[in-house]
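Render Endolytic murein transglycosylase in 3D.
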Amino acid sequence: MSKDKNKGNFKDNLIARGEDARTVRKIVAIVIITLIIVLAIGGISGYSYIKSGLEPVEPGNEQGIEVEIPLGSSTSSIAELLEENEIIKDSMIFRFYIKFKNESGFQAGNYTFTKSMTFDEIIESLKSGRIIKEPVYRVTIPEGLTIEEIASIYADKLPITEEDFIEKVTDPDYISELMERYPFLPEDILHEELRYSLEGYLFAATYDFYQEDPSIETVIENMLDKSQSVLGKYLEEMDANGLSLHETVTMASIIEREAVTEDQRKKISGIFYNRLEIGMKLQTDPTVLYAIGGHKSRVLRKDTEVESPFNTYHIYGLPIGPISNFSESALAAAINPEETNYYYFLHDGEGNIYYSETLEEHNAYKNEHIY
């Protein structure tokens, strides 16, 4: 019995060892397969990342970005500057590319790059000290213009038409796409009574275009990039001031049309805030002109009676949206108005503005300088 029992135990041990061995082999196989999969995924991901890093940041974006390369800059510091300014996606990949191509001799200076440039084009510019090619078109959009006036300028300067520009800025699908890409654009721009959703949001500046045939999308998005850059600097101050971004932009557009100098803008901004605080109508002529859709040397009483959500002789508070684009100076005045006791102001037609605390004083200025 003892011998049979030992044989049984030995057989059981063999079976157990066999099962253990099979379990170990299964575990090893699973680990090896897992490692192979991880390495394969890592290799594919790494390849995709490097391939993406070698490509331009934004093909088709020809907006110039100024970058200063200081004297004595190393290739590492140049690569980091390019990444910080979004000229390249990854500074490490750019450094490896430079080493692989055995490139050197980069020159200090002020450069204008674009997000559409390839590594080779960037390297060639840095080696030659060449700023890059001159823009094909340079278009200046002044302050205080409406969408329609902006469309007219671009139609005159670029190979596009006013009709196509207006059609694009009134395309609801395109506006929705822009709102996703530019989070600063508020829901307010979808108000059904607005003439144009982007009115006031196409920033006044000089724009360079490096393509022979820039698309309308490129034109609009270059302007929104500038708006986003400028407005972004004032977001915290807007929050502290009590007005939403859309209200601030609307206020800035009115100030832009009412005043020229920084001092005038701050004073008039203060007057508008004083009126809002006591529930007084803003009664500003530029909003009447926008409401009637025309240009006049003098606003008549019948003009002020037009029923429009833009006419501040008709409504209380701010209009439902901006009446034009604006300068950074007007935006700063809208955010930081001058504190005064004034509630009235009067233009004399010669560039002078007279401020009053009372209606009686305001009417006296009218009799002296207008009638």
